[in-house]
Queue: 4 jobs
Job 1
Amino acid sequence: MKKVWSMFMLLAVCLVACTNIDDLEDDVDALKKRVTALETQVRDINSNTEALRELYNEGTFITNIEEKSDSYTLTLSNGKTVNLYMKNDNNLLCPIIGIDSEGYWTVLYNKNETPERLTVNGQPVKANGESGKTPTFNVDSEGYWQVSYDEGKNYEYIYKEGTTDKVSATGDGSAPAEDKNFKSVTVENNELVLVLAGEDAPTIRIPIISDFECSFAAEDLEQIQEFSAGETKEFTMTMRGVKNTMITAPEGWSAKFSKEAGKENVLIVTAPASSAKMMTRATADNSTDIAILATSGKYAMIAKIQVSIKNRTDYKADFDHGKDITIGGITINNQIYSDADIQILDATDADVALDTYFSATMSKPVILFLTGTAHNFTTTGVKSISNDVIIIGRYDDEQVTLRPINCWKSCKGKLLFKNIKIDLSDLNGGSNAGYFINNAGVISKGDFTDICIDNCLIANVLKPIYYDAAQKTYFGIDNISVQDTRIEVNAIKIALINIYKGFNLGDYKTFNFKNNIVYSQTPQEGVQILNWATGNIPLSDGVLSAEIINNTFVNMIGSNIFFRYQKGTSLTISKNIFDVSPEAEFGSYYYSFLESCTPQIDVTDNIVYGLTKNWNYYHTSSLVKEPTSGNNITKHATAPITQYDYVNGIFTLASDVAGYGATIE
């Protein structure tokens, strides 16, 4: 205890004036023993007080008891473990805590005195029930006892009854050496018998039933169990001698024992779906407790854990309250989109088609807030986008699934995604299914300005996410942004962003690819992040500024060049991790510019691992040869990823690559 040690230091300094060194050493040793005794005694008193509170609860019994030289360790039917200490240290004036026959806390300072009730604002304190409080004791820096009734947040001094005299913890030795918190603690006929100190104190008898238990693991009891909406967790319980059980759970929650063979003692808990009642904070009442009432003959016990829904962001509520929502650097709010067609759609019970919200003549922007993970949101046939379309997963802790059947044509406006799983399984190269977003319907220059994908999962990529159909009448897009997104690739020789042989390259101004995880379970050759193909003469020079920063690429092999463009102003490929595990029989190239130009290039600070051939800065066909120092890159000595979870797209980075790769949670 810091306060007790401060008292020791103060007294030790005062002793410096002593002239007899032997006396000084004796005094210091005695003081050290006194400080140690005080620390032990405060621990014992608080432990005993907590134990008494638990043992005094009606219906409590003991499932296990361990007797030691000066204490008992008791495991109770509610899963808690408490310690009872039977004896005070010598020469300490310590309060002896008890409970009187009416259930009030009492304190005794000397065996010749009568126990008095502990009070808060002049009122006696119950040991249990709704008004029950458990006192916590402390010793201040001057050696006086203090008591708290709010778990140690605030302390007040203990005064001798009828006086203003503080109770000293280091008295003159008047406290008898054999003072005890209990007159006796014995085990008799499968009962723990506590005879408390004090004339009016009751005797407490608690049954010991060692062959009956229903309990959660200790770590489950110590913290609130947080769930995402709709999430299921399993809890393995200790069950002995249980004949019957009854389970209660908060509204919207499901709790039941597994019926799987060998898992009969596993409790399966499922949080409510988004449409059910949500709770963001658990408190000690039955609205947040999952409780199991177990019975065995005449005995019963209750095992409890507290559950809560994680604090969640409701983007629709934020929008309604005028808050900004940022998607790929673009801000939306209800002032900017005051005239938008705003819809809340739920796929909890069935698939939901979004076809009616797309057309070649959209009169106003569309904002879709989607919820429900049991089914998909779909589109059938080719869809045209001719105004701003913004699609947001409503709650940040659930990611709904959008599964288009055919491509979407970018004609005019913006296309923004946030917190969506975009499943591209059906876009496999069939008719009108060779890409997701198709630049095949731009009305005039500058009409379609942005594609932003933010905090999404793009699953089963088989064909390009964006494709420029390469006609002279089609114009490009000002900004393409992909960030904080997982991209699962299941195809070789594919460009995620395929500008192909676009004519109007001057319309492509910025490309931002940041903090993404791009992965495949097996090494995929020829995967490109962005590609402009050879064999065409554009009508305008490329002015693209591209940033590919802090991404993690797993089993992506740029043998067909990660970034290929005709002519641009800048290219940054930095702080990325490229891991090919196991090693594959390929080389890999970062970039190639097809026209001689002088862009600002930074592609020197990345981590690469795997491949039996070289990692290279630029392809031999590139007309930009920076950096001039050479094109071979040193592989990292050890794997930058320590754990590979291809199913969920989670890759644990090694400690020595901090600052590199994606940090998606």
Job 2
Amino acid sequence: MALYALFGFLLLPKLLNNTIRDQVHSHLGWQTEIEKIEVNPFLLTLTINHLAIKENTVGDTDSPLSFSRFHADFELRSLIEGAFTFKNVELTDPSFSVLINPNGSTNIQQALIKNQQVTSKKEEIIETDNETPSVMPKLLFDNINVVNGSLIAKDHSHGELITHKINPISFQLKAFSTYVEQGGEYQLQLALGDKQSLQWKGNIAVAPIASSGSFNIKGIRLHRFWPYIKQFSPYELRHSNVDLAANYALSFIDNQFQLTLNQAFVTFNDSQIADPQNSDHFVDIKKIKVGPTEFNLVEQFVAIRNIEIDNIGLDLVRGKNGELELLQSLTAFTNSAPSTTETSDTAEEKTSPFLWSIDNININNSTLQITDKAVTGVASIKLHDINASLSALNQSLSNKQPFSLSYKIESSQQNNFSGELIAQPFSLDSNIKLAQIPINIIQPYLAEAANISIKSGHLSLDGNSKLALDASKGLMGTFDGQIDIAEFDSEDTVNNRRLLGWKKLSVTPIKINLSPLTININEIALDKPYSRLIITEDRKVNFSQLMVESSSNSKPEKKSEAVTSPSPEIEIAKISFKDGDAYFADLSLIPQFGTSIQQLNGAIKGLSSSKKQAADVNINGSVEEYGKVAVQGEINPFSDQLYTDMSVTFDKIELTTLTPYAGRYAGYVIDKGKLTLDLNYKISDGLLDGKNRLILDQFELGEQVESKESVDLPIKLALALFKDSKGVIDISLPTKGDLNSPDFEIGGLVMKALTNVITKAVTSPFSLLASLAGGDEQSLNSVAFELGSASINNEQKNNLKTLASLLVERPELILELRVNVDSKQEKLKLQQQALAKQLDLSNKDEQQQLNAMESLYSDKKGEKALKTLKQQLLAAQDEQQKVDEKQFQQQYQQVLSDQLVILQPIETLQLSELAQQRISIIKNELITINKVDNQQVFALQPSLTGSAEGSVINTIFSLTSK
């Protein structure tokens, strides 16, 4: 007993101390410090106090392994149990320090490699031993207890120092055996830092290997482990705390590993994911909770009842190159990743399908922020209050999966999207509700293409949609619902003026079928629509300036010929307008011009692309305060060739508002007047046939103004020509044209026609009057007088009567008449008339006439002159022939008559008197007989240099205006 006690109390502790030191130094090359080893051979206990193993590194104060106390209590009942039996095994304050080098090896591995000494003999022994199957020793522990343990791991293998600390570690295992089927109950508690812990309890056995129980891990800093897996992801986990809890059962029997989990929960808290290239994270998730989950490895199924995701904050940024910035890292990562294509036959081996199911996926109170840097000014759209759910998911993807999605866009109300989804083959049956989505969210994109600023407006939609993917027909589907755009208002950013707007635009209902594409709309209702048409100071229409010119100088690529799809069938039963307004302004005029059309009401009915009949148009409104406008007719814009038969009527429009145009184009302001305009355009087979009527009531021009663009025409004369006695101008303006002609321009057709009519009127006014009176121009624009005469015949009187009636009907017209006198021919005529009157030869024979003429000639010229005249005539006769007395007598009488005519004293005054007689007879016919106002007839200074045509000379009429 003394020797036993001496060996147990004194020698054995020293032997154990040396053995531990030698073994550590032999295998690791490290030094071991042991304060004290106590052995009680009678109580069969072993106690080691303050053991520390230290590396031989200079300045290294860490101990890879240390503890303050190890105690083992061996039981004599081992003889009865047939196994090494321990009552208690206690380890107090164990501390483990592991250093992981850049190459991935630990300090322990390096120490083993450096100090390993293996002889060939040992290798043979090891080989011999390896041939003998190892048998686990029979051990029985009543209680194993680890108190206040700690683990420190410093990892340099990922390019940066990663330190892991686990403290305190508590572990308790009761009734554990290595040779009986039942295992021991255990409980493991780890403190992994601030608010991080692990609790693991249950039963464990090693013969066979089996364990069951539960574990609960809280607050694990998952982002601390991200360096180990970041090589497999293009993104970076900046922060995430994980909780795990489950009941489990595992075993390894007959070389088959079995594992089941139930009531398993995984919770991720405060997760942040970022692009390594950016300092800010793009995903922030408050909480992800997965569970309860059932898992069975043998039966190969996992069933998740719920996945709850709370408060997702996702920031999507589209870069200036048009790509999502987060995808750039993914693309670079994918391109740099090694190929994983399987080439071996094992890749083609079929594995049994793993069954999975998820009862519900819910997303709650989430936000999506979209920032687009690819547009000028940067677009930003925020979706918030996002809640979504998806149910009944499993590996087949062929069952119906109910889903719902609700969200708000900027200041909108709650929007909903719900229904049922089948993933394979794709099928979707859904209800869509959009509630007052602000339209101005598209402003940055609209500004890229058009100079339009959306000031207000919101979109609402309510409908049902069905989509399905057919292998042969492609995507098929329908939509049935209504669309509303309310309080819409927009501005032209070039002129900074209001452009388009309405109080409400309703499309109810609308039915769309995708295959073939058909659109059926019952009614498009516009409540208080507004449009503004402006001609700018540089004479450009504001609508023509809306499109933004592309800055690209590249030539457009030639489009390849593609198979044209059939045109969609469109049916619109009715387009209605209620209390519409339109405004027109011309800023290029001085003063600037503006007018408005109010109270536009009416409808277009029966628009269709499949029907040949045209739609009916009936729209009415008012211009300014009392004027009226009406649009009626038929139109078919969907036909292959445009067809219209439209009438547009403007009634009682105040013309004073058009003064700026009158000043520019006519050179006068408008003093008063009202306009009635009837326009009728019929377009069929590419041909235009227009019938227009212009009525101006009491139209008066005011003062003249300077304008370089005014037409060089006597405008007042034109107005006087057209205006009747009641002050009304009524003009028909036909227009025709071929729309297929490249020279055809539909704009300004009425103005062109009016200009042509006015030009023709002022250049040929009597032609216009003749057409109105049903006569010819020649009969109205002149009177032909016989030479030396001031009398007119009945036909001429009738012509003057016709002219008088036209003048009476047009009191603004002034007739100017200029009498022409042919001084030479008419003086001769007057001399002849005076001689005939003086001789009075009407009742005398030939001899008496000759005697009277000789007597008158002798009185004027003398007897000698008479004889000389007669001798000269005889001398002129042919001497070879005998003089015919009768013929000579006639010649003598004619010569005598001619001489007497010349001798008649006719003064210029007599020619003027003839002209005045002609003026008097014309004015008498017009004024006295046919009641033309004396103020309308003016005689111009007679012309004595006129030229007769044949035996007549014309008195020419001209027209002017007051």
Job 3
Amino acid sequence: MSKELSQKYYKELVDLKNVEGVEAQFRSLLDVQIESVSDLEKWLEDEKELMFKINEAMTGHHLDFYRNTEDKEIKSTYLHDQQVIQPLLLKYEAKLSEKFCESPYFHELDEKRYGLMRRVRESKVKLFREENIPLMVKEQELCTKYSEIMGGLTVEWEGEEKPFPFIKSQLAHLDREVREKAYHAMMSAHRQIKPDMDAIMDELVSLRHQIALHAGFENYREYMFVEKNREYSVQDCYDFHENVEKHIIPAWNRLADVFKYKLDVDTYRPWDNTAKLLKIPPYSEVSTLMDGVSEMLGKTDPYFGERFNYMREHGLLDLEVRKGKGPHAFCEPLLVSGDIFVFANFSPSHDSLSTLIHEMGHAVNGYLEFSEHGPFDYHQWRAEIAELYSFGMQLLLLDKLDCFYPDEEDFKSAQREELRYAFTMLFNPLSGDLFQHWMYTNPTHTAEERDQKFFEISKRYGLNPVDTSGFEKEIGMSWADTLHYFHIPFYTIEYSMSMLGALQLLENYQNNPEQAVESFKKGASADLNQSIAKVYEETGVRFDFSEPVIKQMGDFLEKVIQDIH
């Protein structure tokens, strides 16, 4: 393994290979006598300390695996966590939650500090079934298999074997012929892995449906709404789907006409529906990418730049493309170390620049929370809040893209692409959410029906203005490229909700930049025991996805794009 990959960036304060020792620590917590509210609070602190140690070790092993999916020793450690430690965690988390909820002092805890924890842990007790543990272990094994397949996926390109992310980056090429060639290459790669993807998803849907039935739910969707402790209903989601289709898609079609005109094409094809008006990638080396993002963050707020530089210096960023590296990009907190790690598999493209800024929004949010409140517990993390600051960071840095695009026209094109992306994040996650509603309320569907449904929903939303003739099957199977459907089901609608908030933040920034940045920092360091709406309020925006707000933000976004002459 290279020196870079062997660098230790997390703490292992608990030996997960010593299963008996880990279990003994759980049993010790279960044996504690709790005879007062202060005893219960002390017990919760001890429990949290143990969970943080286990979480950091498992997170580190997970990152090690994603950084090098081909290393057998790393894979063995990661699989041990998934197959041995994870079942133990599920078992004892349920027992500890039961002990907590049954304590006579449970309702005497301060509501402001412990109210959210009580609701989340009551849900855990409600959902837990011993017979689901092996199913959840199998679920993780299938997700690992998906990551291995995607991490090892390569495509022949101009006589060379290239990692799949490189081919995706070519969809942003200025030359339409190159984009089309890349699109065909991607579809060929999808066909190559299609049988494996179908088999994995078929089994995941079946497993998840069984998990829900065991817990007394009609389907996995109903189970997940309780598991996620959502502060909105299934019907609210359906209303959101419809309102975006009604008010955002017509505006998206108008913008597609603008891009069609600028591309000088008669027909808007699938390979045109990407970032493609920028003459060259914004960087060629990852070091250049990091230099520029550091400058952008520092210009927005000195703290933002300082955090990025700290992460860079301490080996907390792994960004370049490598064979055997896992797919996609994500941000992971290290709860004992008090650090954040950003993982990505980047090839030079505007999308990778945008994604790094997005992940740094998560990182800054995490560091601010660590600084203000200490490491956050699992029950406090809600995607609707986390994604507000990742999207918010992208929009706060919109006026600093000239760090990568000094040419005025390129600068404007880059801004248009970011705003076009904001549009897509209002509807693409919703189409993914609707797709999952369908999958898990129709658990006996076939692979063919799944592909047909994905194509149908895609045409209602992001592909509405695109001529997809001849590519119906290819588009139908492209759901397999979305990690969320495999690893984190029902985690997509949160993107759309938070983008509405981020657009409000952009509107505030245009009126008063300094105040908007301070509001961002205030919200990003807010007490996470509050409701989602309250945290948004502290950020100076509203957690509101009603029809009037959707129409207002769609109109605002369209106006901002048109204002970039």
Job 4
Amino acid sequence: MVTLPTAFNALQEQLLNAAEKFATDAQPLSEMLTALIQDVEKASSEPLEIFPVCHHSPSSALQMVRRLREKPPKVIYLELCEDLQNTVENLRDCKLPVALQAFAAESEHFSPKIMPLSVVAPITEASAEYQAIAFALQNPETQLVFVDRAVDFVFQWEPPDTKLAEESEEPPSDEAKMHGSAVGVEVGSLVPTFDQFLSFLLRNSNTRHFSEWWDEYVETAIIGADYETYRQVMFLIGSLMRRLGTRDKDIESDRQRERYMWTSMKKHMAAHNIAPSEAIYICGAAHSASDVAEYSVTNNNLWEIPERTQTKWLYGLIPSSFAAIEYQFHHPAGTVSLAEATWKKNLKVTGLKGFSLNKEEKATKTKPSPVTATNSTLAAFLTRPPELAAADTEQLLQWCADIVGLARKNAYLASTADSIAIYQTSMLLAGMRNRMHPTPYDFQDAAITCLEKDRTPKKRNIYQLCQILLGGDRIGTVGYASLPPLAQDVYDRLQPLGVNLLAQTNQRALMDFKQQPELLPCSDVLWRLYYLSGDTIVKPIMGDRSLGSKPIQESWEIRIGKYQRHIIMLGYEGVSIEQVLEQRLKQTAFSPQAKTSEVLKSTEDSILYARSLRLTQELGEHAISLLKQETGVSDAPQVFERVRRLVHYYRATPTGLPEWIERFVTTGYGHYATLLPQAFADRGTTPEQIAGMLNFIFTLESLALSLGCNRSQLLIGVKQSSQGLDDPAKIGLLWTTEWLLTLRKLEEIREFFNDVINNEMLIKSFPEYLNGFILSLTFAPRISKFVVELLSKLFATVPDKILLPWLPSLILKLRPHAQILQALIKEASSNFPKNLAGFNSWVPAWTKPQPEIKEQVKQVEPAPTLSENELKIREFLFNSPATTNALAKLLGIENLTWQENLETHQEHQESLSETEVKTQELIKNYPATLNYFAGLLN
């Protein structure tokens, strides 16, 4: 057995005697107990004073205040990431709780799956680390040094899957999500990570979670102890948790950090000639029992600190909340608020004054505070029962009265008798759980037992009311001076609105631009924030932003103060909101997976929000290059919709179409015309996508032709598309296209569908054909007459036994085209009678005989493109038709009709009558005869 110093012999003897009486195998247990005492002695005898703490422990904060007031150190070494230290200066301008943050948007050394990288260290007033920081900032003669590993090593040393927050059983609130996906670091984490040990601890202490165990068996016991006893108890608890309650992989991680911290402290002490007696080392209680070789300043062992990566880290402060801290570190709801209440109560009881950066400390020293524990030995402290404080009873009585008042406000039937019942039930529960005095958890259980009904009258139940009573949540605020430049710029530019941007409540801003045109820049800032962050921090209630619109009035809900973290995170991306907006637009547009339509969306957004001609031009050029590279047409419908909107917008501007949009139209016209055969033949290309291509071609054709495009490319593509086509919907699209280009007559299409309707085998494919024609309505609205005709014939002629089985299929085909069907419905309403009686004598327009069109001879001026000789020949023919008729008769052409309606342009050749065509052929084939007659005229 290891021999210990005299100070701990009595405690060791008591523990070993207990082990022999109760343990079946006392030897392993005695070795464990001896190791615990050795850890306490090792930490207590260290020349560099170790101050053990627990995360957000009021007793640690209270003991820290006592220690710093009694003997201010020259240097405070604090267990926090060393590169976060520069951010603490900005705490003067903040309302706690807040969190120190390190952020990296991108890195070449870490997996993209965990981007962006973020580390937060929450700070509350009732924490030892804040009291130490506040003291150091108020006393320049005391140097503050963060000695824990840099945030870069947080991601180097831990596997990526540990960065993801565990999912809770209930969805977190907005306040709980304030830290986002950041990794949390804390000073003094003591929660056991070995599940079996934790469950054993809770089961044998009649507690539900570790926070309740800590509050009952440690916190209330040491908060009034003297300084040395506090240290020894914390050393003992830290050793116990390290040896029994921590998993092996967590111990290895702790050892790595301990090597880093001791090495950093030794280097700093040597460089600045700091004696161990002049410094204090604040760390988690578990680290005080470290077994690494670098432990203690009595040796010269140093660890070789590895290199950091080249990741660019940005540092700052973000708002935090009690709920966010509890969610981050998996504490039960209300843990931090209870700690805050306990901190304030004990400050009042002991007469101490905590350190605060928001208030100036008075020059007078605070009188020494009384302590309840007078025996400085650990053995004596562990063997005496905890003493009751009068403040605890007063606090319990006040809670019992206040919870009844809250319950009444929330429509519960509660009275003074319930206050008495809650007090007595709290005492009863404490006795059943072997507690000297009811804890807040006992009070909460008693209140629920006495007040909760079978239903909740209003929004909050008794548990929620208890949480509010015991402290509730608190949200911190980062002051203006501590904000990043982008956030400060936003605050400055929104100042004309006259709203409190630091307020935690929703602010409403109403802008009338006719009366106050100077508020238009504020509107631009709000719309940019809305585009970058959604409707979290700003939300438009009235007004919108679209191409070509001019705002008249706008109403906004502004929540920048409540969700300050979002605007601070934007500050990590750039120094102005315009810079961040441009970066986001380019990031989306130039992504390797970006499609042409997505780039066009970014281009449109640049017009709406960025208002930068240079940026719009750059994005538009990139859209053209992407369009040229596309081999498929899946993006065609979206491309058409966005280009059409942009063309309409630019046509209404004084400058007209920019050069890039003109090139996009001409490029798209030729590109889609070339891809038509491939799209019609590809079974993976849907009819909707082909309709999008044809929409682009025909809707923007006049613009494309005016810019130099040739229609022959389209004609060739359409003719090639009909080869081997068997998809009914695509056939409908193709036939409509051919009809538009006069390559197919409507009579042919009508005759085909007459056969389909009368054929029981082919009628099943009718909905597919119809789907193609309906899709054609977007680029060929005149085909609506024919579609109405088809549907009318279908319902008029097909028997019900054939029609009804596939009618659901027809309805399903029509359902996605609700917008397109508006034109079809309008056409049908113009053809059908207005009432039922009109159907008795109604004759469909397509069944009426077509009136004969008599050709009339009409004298018109000859086309200006004819030569002088051709004009004389033309005049001779019309003045002497008998000779020409005789020659035509000899050639076998009879009943020649004259009509001076000849066109010289090739594109109008198809509109000539049959007689005119034959006359032109006669002139072309027998020029010698016409030249002879022309000579006679001379």
